[in-house]
Amino acid sequence: MTAPLVGVIDEAGATWRRLRLDAPPGHILSLALVHALTAALNEAAARPGLKWLTIEGSQGQFSYGASIPEHLPGPMAEVLPAMHELMRLVLDFPAPTAALVAGRCLGGGFELALCCDAIIATSDATLGVPEIKLAAFPPVAAALLPMRVGASRASRAVLTGEALPAAYWREAGLLSLVPEAVTLFEAAFSWFARYLAPRPAVTLRHAARATRAVWRPQVERALAENERRYLDELLASPDAEEGVRAWMEKRPPRWRE
Questions:
Q1: What CATH fold (topology level) applies to the domain 6-182?
Q2: Distance of CA 141 to the CA centre of its chain
Q3: Nearest C-alpha neighbor of 138 from the set 152, 157, 119
Q4: Beta strand 126-128 with 176-177: parallel, antiparallel or unpaired?
Q5: Where along the chain do its domains lie?
Q6: pLDDT tens-digit profile of 67-100?
Q7: Model pTM?
């Protein structure tokens, strides 16, 4: 029997649902993992009384990002819409959400974290969207980062592909960092116990949706346009495939443009 790609853990009397990515070593967001996470989110969304949903990695890493071979034009026609369906589920989840980030949080993994209401990270975490190095761009991050950290920081992240330290993102207002004296889980449990556990689930549900109400339609418009641009325009360029082929063949890319 194949091991599940997403572990499900209930805390605090099942009012906190933890989804743990379990596809080591890097919890690559392959199409299979995307489908598993989508199913877990749909199941969690139907649970009454849920006050918090968190997404985390295991073995000291959050996620290295999407599967690079699946960035080829053929697979990407299926992978990108499925990835964006997953992201929309997180953006519209009927309870507060958080990403619990340790280690590397890159590419699609960073986009997944960005869809959460909060990101709680260890001080040694690194986060970024390196897609530009493959002649690609991150549609979700391009839509969300300007609203979460401002246009200049968003442009730096998307255009350079840098993986930047947690301290940078904390200064940008994106992260809550875990104190060195506690573990990531201990910090998350403290957050839940202090801010969410004392509140009724119905209030948290409406408050979460209310805080997303202004920016959520803007993100949806940008995400729909970014998906169209990626599938219809970028993938029509030979360079989009060349970037992936060069990475897979461990050679310098030969760009056409």
A1: 2-enoyl-CoA Hydratase; Chain A, domain 1 (3.90.226)
A2: 9
A3: 157
A4: unpaired
A5: 6-182
A6: 999 999 999 999 999 999 999 999 999 999 999 9
A7: 0.96
